[in-house]
Amino acid sequence: MKNNPNNKNILKRMYETIMKEGGPTGPISKSLVDLYEKTPTIQNKKQLLFLRKVGDKNTSRDEILQNLIRVLKENGWRIKGGSNGDS
After folding, report:
1. Is the pLDDT of residue 34 over 60?
2. 43-75 exposure pattern, b = at least 16 Cβ within 10 A, e = fewer
């Protein structure tokens, strides 16, 4: 099955129908139940790690870069190379 939201809905409907009928009875219904139960439920693929303002429209690029480096370091990131990289 491709990673398509519609496929997940179809699989969910098939799983619910199989369970309503008394559970899996054959190899195909067993494999559908196994597939549904093993499928992770991910709500959002993107997660915010942290949210900090690093600049606004009046901030220069260099200031934004320095602020970003500072915020990343505060959140445990290591930056290698470059000025202020502190590899």
Report:
1. yes
2. eeeeeeeeeeeeeeeeeeeeeebbeebeebeee
